[in-house]
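Batch 3, record 17
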Amino acid sequence: MKSLAGKKTETKAPPLEILLGTAEKVVRWGQESSLWPLPFGTACCAVEFMATVASHFDLSRFGAELVRFSPRQADMMIVAGTITNKQAAILRRIYEQMAQPKWVIAMGACTVSGGLFKSYSVLQGIDKVIPVDVYIPGCPPRPEALIYGYLKLREKIREGK
Amino acid sequence: MKHEDIVKVLSKKFGADIESHGEFRGEMTISVSAPAIDKILQFLKTEKNLDFNFLSDICGVDYVKDHGSFEVVYHLLSMKNNVRLRIKANVPSDKPEIPSVTPIYRSANWFERETYDMFGITFSGHPDLRRILNPDDFPGHPLRKDFDGSPKDEYCPVPIIKK
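Prediction for the assembled complex:
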C-alpha cells in the first residue's frame, strides 16, 4: 500500500482475535437472549415450570417463552421431575436428539440427586447420564428459583463457559 | 350364586386341586394348587352360572421366610352376578413357575409381566414375558423380601458419562 506521499508503508492487519471475540460475543448474546426451552417434565416440578412460563411469572420477559416439545426445535432442556432408571435411557436419547449448542437445567432435588427417592428405581442425579449446566435445588423450586437458575445459565452462556 | 356354592362346584370339579377356602369380611378366598390354575380359571370364566368374566388383578406375595414359597393371587369379578373371588396359588421359591392365564384373560398379560418383574415368578405359556416396570437388564426382583431397596450405584441403564 502506498501512502499519499508515495512512500511505502507497512500496515498491520487489524488484530483478528478482537474481531472474532466480538462476533462470538454477538452470537452468545443472541443465544442467551433467545433460549428455546424443552420441558422434560415428569413430576411436580413441571407444574412449577408451567407457572414460570405463564403470565404471572412470565419467563418471556427474559426471552425463553417459546416452549417447544420437540428436541429438534429447542436448545435448553429443563429436566423437571423424578427421573427413574427406566426413564434415564429416554432422557439420554432426547438429549442427544437436540441440536448443538444445547444446555441443560436440572430443576429440583430429584433431578439433582434423586431427592427423597433413595430407591432402587430412581436415578440418583441426572448428571450421571447427561451433562448439566445449572442445578436448581428445591422440592419443588419456586418459579423465582427457576428464573434465577435460568439467569445463571444466561450468565454462563454470556461468559462462554 | 353364593360363595359356598362356588366352593362346592369347584371342589366337585377339581377335587384335590382346591386346597382350602375361607371367608373374611364377606370376601371369598380359595387356595388352589398352582399347576391347575389355568384350568380352574378357565372353568370359572366359562361355566354358565359362575361367569367370572373379568380378571381385575394378579399379584405376588413373598412367603419364602414363612413356608418357602411365593403366592400368586388372582382377583376375579363376575359382572353378571356381582360376585368377587380371590384365588391363591403357592409356587415353590426354588422353582417359581405357574401356568399363564393370558390365553384365558387378556388382562393377565401385563399383570403377569409385573409379577414376573417384581417377584421373578415365571408364567409358562405367556406370549411375551418381559419385565414391565424395571429396565430389561435390571438386577434382581424388587418386591422379594431379600432384595436390597437402596439405590444401586453400580447399576445404570445407560452408560455413565464422565464428569
